[in-house]
Structures are given as structure tokens and as C-alpha cells.
Amino acid sequence: MNHPDEQDPTRDRILQSALEIFADRGFKATTVRDICTHAGVNVASVNYYFRSKEALYREVLVFSFKEADRKYPPAALMSDLLPAEDRLRHFVRNLLLRLMDDGREGLHAKLMAREIVDPTAALDYVVETVMRPRFMLLRELLPHFVGESWSAHDIDRFILGVIGQCLVYRHALPMVDQLCPQVVSSADAIDRTAEVIFRFSLAGLRDFGREEGERS
């Protein structure tokens, strides 16, 4: 259990330092001493505030999502008041901006990239508390484009197809930088890339929607 005073500056320093070091080195290569030295606190502080390195890491993953959400709010995806196209466009742009952020909030994408490549027990918690609710929103959104007759498995394939187009820019960035660096070379370039992903995805989804109409 976390220390009851979550506004404690020492606790906050530990979280901030842990985010930087876990993102840079990964969970296994990071020690509690590394984090406490960076934060300028006693080694016993991690046990006092978080009980263990594992519990701290889980808290850091959730904390990193909250930090990214503050800069890139997901509210538009969740709004039933917006047209489905606007919600999908927002989702794609929001995700790509998070992935390509090279500032502090970009540590979230770096940390999650490490966690996906070398998962820990904390991934289960993050999937259930943060990722699955957003995935479920996409399950509700995509039938607006493809129709209602597709199986849940196919809807999931459509979702992963959209997400995968964004992820390649993060996970294959060294290759992208050599082959076509101009596509992510600036904020305007990233915006344009997000728009291309959105329109490419929308065209594909609508094509599946037409297929459903032909079958019915």
C-alpha cells in the first residue's frame, strides 16, 4: 500500500527519479540504490513509501500514463458528442504524439516499450487498469465504420492494425531515421504522419464496411 500522503515531496522525487531510470535501463537493470541516489533520499525510503521495488515500478507505470494524459488528454476519444471520425482522428494523433515525444512525457513511451519487450508482473495491472478501458472504447468506436456484423476477433484485428501503424514509428525509429527521417522530423511532420495514418485506416475500415453491406 502507498504512503497515505501522496503529495509528499520525497515520494514525488522517488517517482520522478524512478521513471527516468526505469525508462533508461529497464526494471531488471535498475536497483533501488540507483533510484534513491538519483532522488537524493535514503535507501529505506522506497520501502517506506512503496514497500518494494516491484510495487514502485507498478506505481511508476501508472504515474507515467497520468503524466502523458495531462499533456495529451484522451477525453476526445471518450466523448460520445463528437463524430466517430473525429474521435478516431484524435486517437491516432494523440497516440503518435505520445510515442514521438522526446521530452519528459516521452519517458512514458520509452518505459512502455521496454515493458512490452521484457514484460514484468506489473504489465497485467497496467493492462487491466489503463489499457483495457481504452481498448474497449475502440471496440465501441470501430463498428461505426465497419458495421456490426464483424466478430469481436476481427474488431480487435482492426484496432491492432490502427495501433500498429503508430507503433512502428516508435519501435523502428532508428530505421525510420535512416530511410525517411523527414516523416517525423518536426511537430508539423508528425501531425502530417498522424493524418496519413488516420486517413489510411479510415479508408481500410470503410472498405470492410462496404464488404459487410455486400454480404447483407
Give me the Rg, rounded. Answer: 20 Å
What's the N-to-C terminus distance? 54 Å
Could you say what the CATH topology of the largest domain is called? Tetracycline Repressor, domain 2
CATH architecture of the largest domain: Orthogonal Bundle
The percentage helix is: over 70%
Give, in order, the helices and strands: HHHHHHHHHHHH
CATH class group of the largest domain? Mainly Alpha
> Structural class of the helix and strand makeup?
mainly alpha
Largest sheet: none
CATH superfamily of the largest domain: Tetracycline Repressor, domain 2
Helix count, per DSSP? 12
Detail the poorly predicted runs: none
- What is the average per-residue confidence, as pLDDT, rounded to a whole number? 91
Number of domains: 2
Notes on the protein architecture:
- The N and C termini lie far apart (54 Å).
- The protein is elongated.
- Helices cover 76% and strands 0% of the residues.
- It is mainly α and 216 residues long.
- It folds into 2 domains: 9-63, Arc Repressor Mutant, subunit A (Orthogonal Bundle); 65-215, Tetracycline Repressor, domain 2.
